[in-house]
Amino acid sequence: MSEVFLRRLTPSLTPFVRRQQDFHILSIHRPIEELRQRLQDLQPAGLITEWLPAITDRLLQLELPTVIADTDFTYPGVTSIDVDDHAVGAEAARAFLEAGYRSFACLGNGAPYSDQRIHGFRQALEADTSCSVHTEPSLLEARYSESFTSPSDAMQQWLHDLPKPVGIFAVHDPLGRFLCGACQTLGLKVPEQVAVIGANNDELVCGLSYPMLSSVAIPWEKIGAVVGEAMERQLAGETAPPSPIQIPPGGVVLRHSANHLAVEDEMLRRAMSYLSEHLQDPISIGELCHDLRIARRSLERKFREFYRCTPWEMLCRMRVRHARHLLVQTNHPISRIAELCGFNDPERMAVVFKRITHQSPSHFRRTPRPG
To answer: Helix axis angle, 266-277 relative to 296-306, nearest 10°?
Structure first.
């Protein structure tokens, strides 16, 4: 696999080394014939591999017990494990809708996961909402963390023509970083005119973007644990599942490129800042209005006009989004997550969580699940 992917999975594969399993690491970017020859020389008991077009098919010809760590394509006798890419796109769409955006767009790169994430994004939007899509295929060949390509003329025209303000979902973090740079080149302000959400929540890429990139979190540690367990089952002679194992994503980690504070109205901006800062506190909207010295009726009217919901409903959505992130990214008991998200008790969290997501917190957390 690539070094980027290895960095993601290593924390969860380490425990399997303690079970007297040794790992040899080969870069998937080596020439395919060299890869095949090295594997034949090593004679490993099993193979964990990242998916790449053409490369994967040639590696599977070696007929080793195999786990593919990042695809929902299925192969006979092989375990495929992937994040639910449709759900990744849906998470980004929900974050933009929650922030009150009316104009939406997607930037893809033509890869299979790109199409799935864009499809999930568009499905999660309201039925009568349009979404402009642009594909920049030149970036498909770049290494994950590389950032030196200039936007095409077609992309520059696309960005210029989009109605502003617009929320753009970039299907992975390097595209999001690239998009932020393209906006800077064109004189478009991020997030005031163009809000950007990427995917994968890669700390290196998101942290080196200007402004820092918001992103859909992927539970890499959980994926790594499922990969290790699947490899053990393969080595024990168990039959690989006929469907891919899909892991739900976490929520959106908001940074500077897309946040609730990119709102022109000062009252809304102050209210959203207050809600964000007091997410864990058992606050009421009456307390918010008292502390900020604003009229409750005016606040509720502006929330309905801009966010299409009440301030209380917005607080519930923000708490549930935070709970979704903690359910996926941590092993905290649900009672602790309820406390961290400002709910009075787990029962109250379960009621609100189910009303917004249509499933219970325990059902949402249950992974892996078949695709």
So the answer is: 90
Closest of 242, 217, 232 to residue 321, by C-alpha: 217
**Which amino acid is present at 163?**
P
Please give the structure tokens belonging to residue 55: 């490369």
Decide if 283 contacts 216 (C-beta within 8 A): no
Q: Which of 75, 368, 65 is nearest to 238 (CA)?
A: 65
Show the DSSP H helices in the chain as ranges.
3-17, 32-42, 55-60, 85-98, 112-124, 153-161, 173-186, 203-208, 220-235, 266-277, 285-292, 296-306, 311-329, 334-340, 346-357, 361-365
Q: What is the largest distance, in Å, between two alpha-carbon atoms of the chain?
A: 74
Question: Can you tell me whether residue 107 is helix, strand or coil?
Answer: strand
- For residue 307, what are the contacts with CB-CB under 8 A and spacing of at least 6? 98, 99, 100, 268, 314
Which of 270, 273, 274 is closest to 283 using CA atoms?
274
- The closest alpha carbon to 114, from 95, 133, 96, belongs to 133
Place of tokens 């367990």: 229
For every one of its 371 residues, what pLDDT tens digit does the chain have, with 9 covering 90 and above? Answer: 998 888 888 888 887 766 666 789 999 999 999 999 999 999 999 999 999 888 999 999 999 999 999 899 999 999 999 999 999 999 999 999 888 888 999 999 998 999 999 999 999 997 778 999 999 977 766 677 777 778 899 999 999 999 999 999 999 999 999 999 999 999 999 998 999 999 999 988 998 888 999 999 998 888 998 999 999 999 999 999 999 999 989 888 888 888 776 677 889 988 988 898 888 898 999 999 999 999 999 999 999 988 888 999 999 998 998 898 888 878 889 999 999 999 988 999 999 999 998 889 988 887 554 44
